[in-house]
Each structure stands twice: as C-alpha cells, then as structure tokens.
Design a protein that fits this description.
By secondary structure, this protein is of the alpha/beta class. The chain folds into 2 domains: about 140 residues, Response regulator (Rossmann fold); about 110 residues, OB fold (Dihydrolipoamide Acetyltransferase, E2P). It is built from 7 helices and 17 strands. The strands form 5 sheets. Strands 2-1-3-6-7 form a 5-stranded parallel beta sheet, sandwiched between helices. It has a 5-stranded antiparallel beta sheet with strand order 12-11-10-14-13, covered by helices on one side.
Length: about 260
C-alpha cells in the first residue's frame, strides 16, 4: 500500500518545494493535499481518514500548528518543518519523527522519511509478534482439557475440570478431589496433568499436589522458607509449597 502523506504549509513556494522533494524521493507516495491553517486542518480531519504521515510547518496562517493537536486527537507521526529552531522541544512532544529547518534539503528529507519507515516497520513487526503470541495462546487455551474421563468401578464418568479442587498423588495413585468431596482415581500422572490443564487454573506446589486457587483456604509461613497451605476439602495430610516453588506460587496467585 502506498504511503499517504498530508502537508501543512501556508507558503505556496515552500509547499511546491516539498512536493518536488517528496516526488523525487518516492513517486509512489500519495499526497493527500496541502493545508494552510489550523482551522482548515480541523475541518479536513473531521471528514477524512487519517493519513500515514504529516509534513507540518510549525507556523501556519492562523497560528502555530500545535493548536491543531489541542482540537483534534492525532496519533499520526509528524515530520516538522520550520524556519526557526525554538520549537524543537515542543515538537518532540507530539509524535515527532524529525525536525527539519527551512529551506528543507533533499538529503534531510530523505533521512527523515527513512527514519519514519524504520519506526513504522518496527511497530508493524511488534504488532505482528503480539498477534502471533495472542493467537498461540488462544490455540493453546482451546486445547486444555475441560473435562476428564474417570473410571469409577465398572463405569466411566465425565468430570468437569472446574469441579476439581486439586489433584493428589498418594499410595501410588493419582486422585482428583472435587469441591463436593469426591475422591476419584485417575489414570494420568501429575506430570501429564500439568501439560493437559490450563496453568492459570492449576499450580504444582510440590511432587504430590496440583491445586486450584479456589481450593486454598489459608496460607501460613513455614520452616525453611516454605509455605503451609490449608486446602478444601481437607486432604488430611500436611500440604507444603516446596521452597523452590514459592516465588512462582506467589506470582501465580497474584496474577
């Protein structure tokens, strides 16, 4: 897609000069128009989609261009052009890519455009990476188990993961303990369950317990920088968060 540029310049000769430089730099750039005043700029933005880049003289026919930013919310990158340098600090507070002194030199304009393109490319790459991460998380979240098939006697029973308070390894077997106080044997190991279940919902506090935050009633400090937690339903055994897992456990609870 061609780059769309809007020029703010109230001097016709300066405007013509900018147009020639831009066409020399890249003839495919789409010039949307030349705005001469703050008032005209406000009217233009009220009826047009925003361009990709602004080339903006600081002093326009009816006042400084910064007045435009007070009336219109603009998050468009700007290359400022001016005959004076006292506005530099103010210019860099409003999306400034560069600050060019008049008469604008071709090399300076070319470098300003290249700077913009580099910044724009980085923004797009960061957005694409963010989208990829979000998509990956959505796909991963959709693959986490929402229910488990559990054998009870001669029957197979479906148990919703949301009904399970914690998983316990005891007496050589892995058990799912529900909030309704049912203790059900399952064929998966705790290592396998860690991979199958959403890590936001369950945390492996030690070698024997994989717990849900809603199952934690109380947390106590314990000897040797460990934590002692009280679960519901009560497993009737001491439940400790191992020392090396305490920092991650706190982070998990807090997030």
């Amino acid at each position: 897609m061609n780059l769309r540029v809007l020029i703010f310049e109230d001097e016709s000769l300066s405007a013509e000069h900018l147009v020639k430089l831009i066409c020399r730099y890249d003839p495919t750039i789409e010039l949307l128009g030349i705005i001469e005043s703050v008032k005209q700029g406000v009217e233009w933005f009220s009826s047009h989609p925003h361009p990709d880049l602004l080339l903006m003289d600081i002093q326009l026919s009816d006042g400084p261009c910064f007045d435009l930013f007070k009336q219109v919310r603009l998050e468009i990158p700007v290359i400022f052009t001016t005959a004076y340098n006292e506005y530099a600090i103010q210019a860099f507070k409003v999306n400034s890519v560069d600050y060019l002194l008049k008469p604008v030199d071709f090399q300076d304009l070319r470098m300003a455009f290249e700077k913009f393109r580099k910044q724009h490319k980085n923004v797009i790459q960061n957005q694409e990476q963010l989208y990829e991460q979000l998509y990956s998380r959505l796909i991963q979240a959709s693959q986490y188990k929402k229910r488990l098939l559990i054998k009870v006697g001669e029957q197979l029973k479906q148990v919703n993961v949301e009904d399970i308070a914690y998983f316990l390894f005891n007496e050589g077997m892995c058990w799912a303990v529900t909030f309704a106080k049912n203790k059900l044997p399952i064929d998966y190991s705790l290592d396998e369950l860690e991979q199958m279940l959403d890590p936001k919902l369950f945390f492996r506090i030690n070698r024997k317990f994989l717990v849900k935050p809603e199952a934690i009633e109380k947390i106590h400090t314990y000897f040797n920088n460990r934590l002692k937690i009280q679960l519901r339903p009560d497993p009737e055994v001491e439940v400790l968060v191992s020392r090396e897992r305490v920092p991650d456990f706190k982070y998990w609870l807090d997030n």
